[in-house]
Write a structure and sequence with these properties.
- With 382 residues, the protein is an alpha/beta fold.
- It is built from 11 helices and 12 strands.
- Helix 4 (93-102) links the parallel strand 4 and strand 5.
- Helix 6 packs parallel to helix 11 (344-355).
- The longest helix has 70 residues, at 115-184.
- The protein is elongated and about 110 Å long.
Length: 382
C-alpha cells in the first residue's frame, strides 16, 4: 500500500451500500488512507468533478435518475480521465462484459466483494488506467511524429526537385556561353563579350554559393555541424563579410553602412554568424537597385542582441514574406540585375539562428525595401 490518500468518488443511492463500502475499506485501509466523496445521482457528477480531483470512481448502475449501461455512458463521458469501477447488484454477465468493453476498469457484484478484493481492485484499476493513459499518450505522440515525418519527407522531396533543377541550370548556361565563345567569338563585339562574361561570372558565383549553402544545410541535417561559440567583435565580422562582397557591391554602386559599434561584442559561433550575415547582405545587394543603400545595425539589451540588415530595394509582398522559410515552396526571385537564387540560404540561416536559441523576423514593403533582423540570447556562455 502507498501513503497517498485515495480519493474515491462514490456514486451510490443506497445508504446500506455506502456503509458497506466504508466498512470494507476501513478493514483494509487505515482511516486516513482514503477519502470518500459521495453523491447519489448522475446529475450531481458535474458539480462533484468541478470541486475535487479523484483517483477512482465507484459506480452503481441503478440510480434514481439513470439505469443500466446508460449510467456508465453518462459518467464515462463526463469523467473519461478517471478510472471507473462498477459495483452493481445486477449479475448480468453480458452487461458486465459490455461495460468493461466500453471502458470500465472492472465490474464487481455487491455481496460478493471482500475488503481485500475491493481495495486491490481499486488499486489495480488506478494503475491499469494510468498505464493505459501513458500508452495512449505515446500512441498519439507517435502518430503526431509520423505525420510530421511524412510532411517533412514530402517537403524535402519537393525541395530536392527544386534544387535538382537549380543544379542543372547553371551548367546549361555555362555550356551555352562557352560554346558561343568557342565558335563565334570573332563575330561578337566588345560589349556583347563583356555582357556574356558578366553573366558567366554571375552564374559561377551563384553556383558556388548554392554549393556552399547545400553543403552547410546537409551538414546541419546530419547533426554534424559543430557549434563552437566564442567572443568576437560584431562590427569586425560584418566588415569581413562586406569586404568579401566588395566586388558585388562595387558593381552595383551600392553604399553599405556598418552602424555596429566598434566595441560591440558577440558571444556566438563566428562561422555561423558569418554565414548568416553573408546571406542577408548578399540578398540585400541582390534586391537593391544600382546606387542603393544598405545599413547594418545592432541593438543590445540585457537579454538579447539583435542585428538588422536593412535595404531600400524592391521589397516583398505579404505572400512572399509568409513563404520565405517554407522549404517546399520556391520563394527566390530574380534580383534587380536578373541575379538568380534558390531561397535555400534563408532556410539555412534560420536553422543556424535557432541553433543559438534565437529567431529571425522580416519587415518589408514593395517598392520601399526590406529589413531582416535576427536575435540571439545575450550570454557569455551558451
Amino acid at each position: 500500500m502507498t501513503d497517498k490518500i485515495l480519493n474515491i468518488l462514490l456514486i451510490e443511492d443506497s445508504p446500506l451500500a455506502v456503509k458497506l463500502i466504508h466498512d470494507l475499506l476501513d478493514h483494509d485501509i487505515d482511516n486516513d488512507g482514503y477519502k470518500i466523496f459521495h453523491i447519489e445521482k448522475v446529475s450531481e457528477v458535474d458539480n462533484a468533478i468541478d470541486n475535487q480531483d479523484y483517483d477512482v470512481i465507484l459506480l452503481d448502475l441503478g440510480l434514481p435518475d439513470s439505469q443500466g449501461i446508460q449510467t456508465f455512458f453518462y459518467v464515462y463521458e463526463k469523467c473519461s480521465l478517471i478510472p471507473i469501477v462498477i459495483l452493481s447488484s445486477n449479475e448480468d454477465e453480458q452487461l458486465a462484459l459490455r461495460s468493461v468493453k466500453e471502458g470500465a476498469q472492472d465490474y464487481l457484484i455487491k455481496g460478493q466483494v471482500t475488503s481485500h478484493f475491493l481495495v486491490r481492485t481499486l488499486r489495480y484499476a488506478i494503475e491499469r488506467f494510468g498505464m493505459k493513459k501513458q500508452l495512449m499518450n505515446l500512441v498519439e505522440e507517435l502518430k503526431e511524429h509520423s505525420k510530421r515525418l511524412e510532411l517533412s519527407n514530402a517537403t524535402k522531396d519537393k525541395f530536392f526537385s527544386i534544387i535538382a533543377h537549380d543544379l542543372r541550370s547553371p551548367f546549361q548556361n555555362i555550356v551555352g556561353i562557352s560554346t558561343l565563345f568557342s565558335q563565334e567569338i570573332e563575330q561578337l563585339d566588345r560589349n556583347t563579350i563583356k555582357e556574356l562574361s558578366r553573366e558567366l561570372k554571375n552564374t559561377v558565383d551563384n553556383y558556388i554559393n548554392l554549393q556552399e549553402n547545400l553543403l552547410n544545410w546537409a551538414i546541419m541535417q546530419l547533426g554534424k555541424m559543430q557549434f563552437a561559440p566564442e567572443r568576437f567583435l560584431s562590427r569586425a565580422k560584418a566588415d569581413e563579410v562586406i569586404g568579401y562582397l566588395s566586388a558585388y557591391i562595387l558593381n552595383k554602386d551600392i553604399t553599405v553602412i556598418n552602424n555596429i559599434n566598434a566595441a560591440a561584442e558577440l558571444y556566438a559561433d563566428a562561422n555561423m554568424i558569418r554565414a548568416i550575415l553573408l546571406n542577408l547582405i548578399s540578398n540585400a545587394i541582390k534586391f537593391s537597385m544600382n546606387r542603393g543603400k544598405i545599413e547594418i545595425l545592432m541593438d543590445e539589451t540585457k537579454d538579447s542582441i539583435q542585428i538588422t540588415v536593412k535595404d531600400n530595394g524592391v521589397g516583398m509582398s505579404e505572400t512572399q514574406i509568409k513563404n520565405l522559410f517554407n522549404l517546399g515552396i520556391r520563394t527566390s526571385t530574380f534580383g534587380t540585375e536578373m541575379e538568380k537564387g534558390t531561397g535555400l540560404g534563408l532556410i539555412l540561416i534560420k536553422e543556424m539562428i535557432e541553433a543559438h536559441g534565437g529567431n529571425i523576423s522580416v519587415q518589408s514593403r514593395l517598392g520601399v525595401g526590406s529589413e531582416f533582423s535576427f536575435s540571439i540570447p545575450n550570454k557569455t556562455d551558451l
